[in-house]
Every structure is written in C-alpha cells, then in structure tokens.
UniProtKB/TrEMBL annotation, chains A, B:
It comes from Qipengyuania qiaonensis. Keywords: Amino-acid biosynthesis, ATP-binding, Kinase, Nucleotide-binding, Threonine biosynthesis, Transferase. HAMAP family: Homoser_kinase_2. The keyword Cell wall biogenesis/degradation does not apply. The keyword Transit peptide does not apply. This is Homoserine kinase. Its EC number is 2.7.1.39. Belongs to the pseudomonas-type ThrB family. GO terms for molecular function: homoserine kinase activity. Residues 27-258 form the Aminoglycoside phosphotransferase domain. It holds the Pfam family APH. The gene is thrB. Gene3D superfamilies: 3.90.1200.10, Phosphorylase Kinase, domain 1. Pathway: Amino-acid biosynthesis; L-threonine biosynthesis; L-threonine from L-aspartate: step 4/5. InterPro entries: Aminoglycoside_PTrfase, Homoserine_kinase_II, Kinase-like_dom_sf, Pseudomonas-type_ThrB.
Length: 318, 318
C-alpha cells in the first residue's frame, strides 16, 4: 500500500481535462494496491480511482485488464468500468508511466465475513466467470503451480527456513501438487486473487470486485478454490466456520453448478492456490527489509491452509 | 504518508454508528499525515476524514486542536469542523488510540502556486489569526528557536556534516537567531506549519486549511514568515518569483495590516522558521534509514532559504 509517485494538483487537473468527467475537485492518494499508485479523484460530476501502473504490470497487458473491466461491467457484473478519454483511449501516459481512470464503486471490504456475505461473493464470482466466457482476449496464467514452485526453488531451502523452519516442506508438497495438477477443467477468464481486500460490499451485497491485475485464462474451479482459501480461514490457518465455505460454494453453484470433475479437483486446486500465495509471500518476505514500513504477509498462513486441504480432502468443501 | 493501523470494515462501521452521520458507504486509507493514520470515509450523508492519532501528538492536546477547528470553523474560516459523537465528544478511542472524525473539504494542494493563490492564502491566514484571538485555550510552542537549535545541537556536528558538509554552519547561525529573537509581537493561535500540503484550493480560492497539529500560541508575524518560507521558493532554494511573497503579504495585510515592529521583525522570524524546519528535517533524516520507503525531506532546502533571508534582509519581503 503506497503512493509511489507524486502527482501535483496541476498535473492531475491537466490529466482530468483529457476526460469528459467534469472538473477536478479533490484528489487523495490512497493506500491501496502494492504494484500501483492510486488516487481517489473527485470531480464536479462523480468520483473515480486513478491508477498509475508502477511495476509488475506489463503495459502490454493493459488492453486485456481494462477491456475486461468494460466487458464485465457491460454484463452487469459488479466491476468498475474503465473511463475512456476524449479520444477513446482506455489509458494515457504521464511521463513514461501508464495511467487509467476507473469508476469509483461504493462499499467496504469485510474483515470478518459472514455466510451471507460469502454466498454473495460466490454468486458474483460465478457471474463474472459466465460473463467473461464471451471476452475475446486471453492471457496466460504465469502463476500456476509449475511457476510458483520454481519461485520457491529459486528462494532456496535455506532462505525459506529462515522465514520459518517448517516452510521448506513446501518444496516436496509442491512437487506433488504439480504432478497431480488437474487439466481440462472448464475455463474462462479468472480473477485469481479474489481476497476480501479486492471485494467491496455494502451489508451482504457485493458492490465491487476490484484489482483484476492477476486476471488470466484458467480453470473456473481454480478461482473458486482461490476464493475459498482466501476467505474461509482465520489468521491461525484453521477454517473459521464450515458454513463460510459451504455458503461460498452454494452461492457459486446457484449460478453455475460445478461439474463432477471440478468438484473432485477442488482439494488439489486449493492446494495449488496455497502454493501460489506461499510463493509470492515468501519472495516478498525475502525481498522486503525487516525494518521497512511495509507489513510483510506471512507465507506460513497459507502453509497451514495447504496442510488443512491435504488433511481434509473433499470434506474441506462440504 | 502512511496508514499505520489496520481498521476493518466492521470496526469502522461500529465507530461511524457512534456519530449521527448516516451509514458507512466507503472507507479508503489515505496517504496523508506523517504522525497519524487517515481514512477518507463516505457515509450515506457526506464525506469525512477519520484521523487516528498514532504518535507525536499528545492526546492531552486534543481538546486544543479539535476545539480550535470548531472555533475557526464557527468564524467561517476555511477549516474543517470536528464532528462530535452522539454524546458530544470530539474524539473517541479505538483500543488505546484516539480517533476523531473531521469534516471533508474539497480542493487540491497547489504545487506551483501563482500570485493570486498566494494572495488568497495570505487572506485566509490573516482570517484565522483574527478569529483565533477569541479562542480561550493556549498551547506553548515547543518548536521555537531555542528548542529547535537544541535539537540540532543534539544531532551533533558530525551527524549534520554527514547529511551535507554545509549543514553544520546552521549551529552558529542558530545562536544568532536565538540571541536576536523578537519578543512582544502581537500574538494569537498560529498554524505554524502552513505548507502547500496543508492548504486545499479550488482555482484561486482557499477551500481548506488543514493539519493544525503544530498549532500553538505565538507571534502572528512568525506564522506569516513560516508561510513565506514554505511557499515562495523552488527546490533550489532561490525565491521563485518576488511576486509570490508580495502577493502573500498583500493578501494578509488586506485583512490585518502588519505593525512597524512586525514588519521589521520579518527577516529574523523567517530565519527562525528556517531553523525550525532544518532541525526537524535533520532529525527525521538521521532517524530514517536511507533504504526506507519514505521520502526524506532534505534539510538543505531550508538551509538555502535561511541564507537567502540572511543575505536579503528586509528586501526579501518587498
């Protein structure tokens, strides 16, 4: 969470004038996004999120990410629309950095979600999966099990052990996950990072799914497994309430029932999801100095979830 | 700029329910304030800034700071009002930290201000000085020249030289500033930190003066000198445009003409202002690891301004 670039009032006013959105009234740098700078912009007409793409995001992917928002938004998914400038462009450049103006959506991210909220998240996820099947672009998932296992191998057993003595066990588990990774599951464009931080809600209603910058082509059931792993556990890695997972899947299936092969694959998919977050967190941990002002996310949170999914198999989802 | 504390949606909704402000619609941590965490809060009724006092601010000072906002706001100064909770309290506690809900004001902070904007800032500053004379509380300035010189002495000549070889010269200059510090100038409550960051504007109009957490009892002309030093120079320490300072003082005097003794004191007061910012920046510089993600402010910016005021005397203000 950070604002990496200073944008002065005059820069912002000049930028906003390139869009048909009224005049600049207020701009606050907001503490969201780890690879972008973001501002909450108010104009005489409405509010917007201005995103500056700082790193990790390849500008060549912007047509995919920003086009996807428009596609999903056109299908009435709770997803912010990209605001196009007066020439129709979905993004512009300030100096050498790409920026996009995105619709502001109300809502707050729940930290202790209830089953009714999980159900709504399941519905919204299924809705985007169905709508995204009509999206004409594709994008490879560069954070699948083979890639994330390779990230962990590159970290090295010794470095992983420095984070936590139990962490290197992930390497052997990762081999198993890669070897038994299900293929040929029904695919669409998936969010692949739908943590509570990326969902805005008002009460039990999903008002916004945001931060699609890991979206890619992939198995829809994998996205459901990611969401299960991200929402249904507390800090200690034990499943908070069996009802949360049940409500998520029920909500999902109310719009898009899982096939038998998808249901069978869920335990493996969930372990693959854990591997992916263990890998990115371990890498970030090792890249971030211990005294930096950024809170490091503990990879062990997902090590415990991985163990839970291994131990409970299919019963983790019923 | 940071958000030091995580406040969940449920914590925020519970807090907002203690105020008669409608229901929570949105909350974004914003990258403002160095000693506080801040959120831009939207309710079904309006927008607000929620401030959590993290450090540097003594909770015993909150009646002064928050009462001052109400007093100035009652006098139609462009200052955000403190929102009181249903019991009438100006601040509450979450865990062991004080929080206050403050009116949101539109506007953006200029980075390359023009003379018309400086004039408006001068008017707004004079307006608050006059209005604050009726405020019944006082607060000692703990960042006057004796204290800030002591801070620099404590940093030590060697440490200052590590920041910049020319910086230790501030110690001898500081002795002179303390020795010739003007007394008995007309006093009020002063902002004492009115940098562009702390002023919101729409066009040439001041819509908000914010961040009164250094406000204290003091000479009004000192506050004008602080504002002059903060607004009228570019990065290189040379005065951007003589017109900026002239417009600031003209605006100020349109509401509150300076006395002869105040005008005579301006060069000394401005040097004292520079000493204060050199001291706090040098201390922050030495306290902040070079690889931290926080941008350190260079004390030399104000060393150059101090030299400018020494060299130009009264003509720096005409």
């Amino acid at each position: 969470m950070a604002v990496y670039t200073h944008l002065g009032a005059e820069d912002l006013a000049r930028l906003i004038a390139e869009y048909d959105v009224g005049e600049l009234v207020s701009a606050k740098g907001i503490a969201e996004g780890v690879s972008n700078s973001n501002w909450l912009i108010e104009t005489t007409r409405a509010r917007y999120i201005l995103t500056m793409y700082e790193r990790r995001i390849d500008p060549a992917d912007l047509p995919f990410f920003l086009g996807l928002l428009d596609h999903l938004s056109d299908a009435n998914c709770p997803v912010p629309r990209t605001i196009h400038d007066r020439s129709g462009a979905a993004w512009r450049k300030i100096d050498d950095k790409a920026v996009a103006l995105i619709e502001f959506l109300p809502g707050v991210s729940p930290t202790t979600p209830n089953p009714a909220q999980l159900r709504a998240v399941g519905v919204a996820l299924a809705q985007t999966h169905l709508a995204a099947q009509g999206f004409p672009m594709t994008r490879a998932n560069d954070l699948g099990p083979p890639q994330t296992l390779a990230m962990l191998v590159q970290c090295g057993r010794d470095a992983l052990a420095l984070i936590d003595p139990e962490l290197p066990a992930v390497l052997a588990l990762g081999d198993g996950i890669v070897a038994s990774w299900p293929s040929d599951l029904p695919a669409s464009i998936i969010h692949s990072d739908l943590f509570p931080d990326n969902v805005l809600m008002l009460g039990d209603r999903v008002t916004g799914m945001i931060d699609f910058y890991f979206a890619c082509s992939g198995a829809m059931a994998y996205d459901l497994a990611v969401t299960h792993a991200a929402w249904c556990f507390d800090q200690s890695g034990r499943r908070n309430y069996a009802e949360l997972g049940k409500a998520l899947i029920e909500g999902y299936e109310s719009l898009r029932p899982l096939s038998e092969s998808e249901r069978t694959a869920l335990p493996s998919l969930a372990q693959g999801a854990c591997l992916r977050f263990i890998a990115s967190r371990a890498q970030d941990w090792l890249d971030t100095p211990a005294d930096a002002l950024v809170r490091r996310k503990d990879p062990m949170d997902f090590m415990r979830r991985l163990e839970f999914y291994r131990a409970n198999g299919q019963s983790a989802f019923t």
